[in-house]
Amino acid sequence: MKVQMKAKSYVSIAILMALFLVAGCGNKSEVTPSNSPSPTATVTASPSPIVNGGITPEATPTTPAAVTSKPSASPSASPAASTTPAKNGAIQVVAKPESITVLVNKMNSLPSSYEPTDLVYPNIAFTFTEKIEKRKMRQVAATAIEKLFAGASKDGIQLAGVSAYRSYATQKAVFQSYVKKDGEEKAKTYSAVPGTSEHETGLAIDVTGSNGKCAAEDCFGGTKEALWLEKHAAEYGFIVRYPQGKAAITGYQYEPWHLRYVGLDVAKEIQSKNLTLEEYYQTVPVAK
Question: What sequence ranges are listed for the domain D-alanyl-D-alanine carboxypeptidase-like core (predicted)?
């Protein structure tokens, strides 16, 4: 009887010990996950910045949307400026700078990259002897000025060139020298901002009498040379570009020495109707 009781006791103790061990293992299994997620969390957390960076398909659509939304507003705002940038804040860049009748003034600038490709030295007298840039003109204008000088000579009028073509860099230097002398506001009444000078077209030339007196000066007005040019220049395709009494339209004071080649037909029409090139094109007067 005692042996049976002892056996039962041993069995009970064994059961209790087994239960204790099971309970202990259960506690360890609960504690281990609570500690282990921290390394697991750091591993799984790293993909989240990748998703936000736009690598996953879900995130990539938002990136193009942000990029394409900006150009949608810009095409209508600045297509002209992006293709042919204006110089020095000029209002408009001319579309065909190579045109013989191109309108270049304070509101119409030549493209920054434009340079005539057919510049030559006309066979006429100049007030200087060097073969330099300002002797050049475009071929068609050079041929016409040779005929004009020859025609003047037949009428007893001896002319000389003062300044023809000017590059953008030269015009910039010229304008800045006048600004330094008279200030920008006054300089703009008789000199062009770089990019807006007719001399840069290769179609314009300043002339004077063969003695060189009053070259590009007010005293040239009223001379026999100036009067002959006013009457006959159109016969050779030239106009006096800045006529007297038209400064409010052209933006420049009277320059009887400044000739511009526009071709025979246009020159004759402008002269016969006493127009400026701005009036011929029916454009708004040039702002000073």
Answer: 135-263
